[in-house]
Amino acid sequence: MQNPRIALVAHDAKKEAMVAWVEEYRDLFHRAKLFSTGTTGGRILERFPDLDLTRLKSGPLGGDQQIGAMVAEGKLDAMIFFVDPLSPMPHDVDVKALTRLAIVYDLPMACNIGTARAIMESPLFTTERVTS
Ligand SMILES: O=C(CO)COP(=O)(O)O
């Protein structure tokens, strides 16, 4: 895929892991269009300022819902969302809604590093899609 459109989101306890994971795939991400919730995007851009990354609102302030709208409009090719399974979230309903939309629209979505690696190394990103 030439310019994959990828959403990157991480809860606070997972933000370091997200930045480290972006480092692993930085070559691919340099030709991707990235979209992140506010704080996650800020952390990624601090480390990789040259990425094409659009920061949306912070998750608890509507960022998850903005990404959900992109899913519903077919504007994403994959979503990587490192969820913190051990902390209660004030915006848990938004997280659930976002996950639900990824299922509804059959969007490849990873909630942990293992699945995120599997997606990035899948034919979706490693081979050119033939379009007619
Ligand atoms: O809370 C989030 C996802 O639910 C992430 O939002 P931030 O990237 O703004 O911290």
TrEMBL record:
It is an enzyme of class 4 (lyase). Its EC number is 4.2.3.3. One of its GO terms (molecular function) is methylglyoxal synthase activity. Keywords: Lyase. GO terms for cellular component: cytosol. One of its GO terms (biological process) is methylglyoxal biosynthetic process. The keyword Zinc does not apply. This is Methylglyoxal synthase. It comes from Paremcibacter congregatus. The lineage of its organism: Bacteria, Pseudomonadati, Pseudomonadota, Alphaproteobacteria, Emcibacterales. The gene is mgsA.
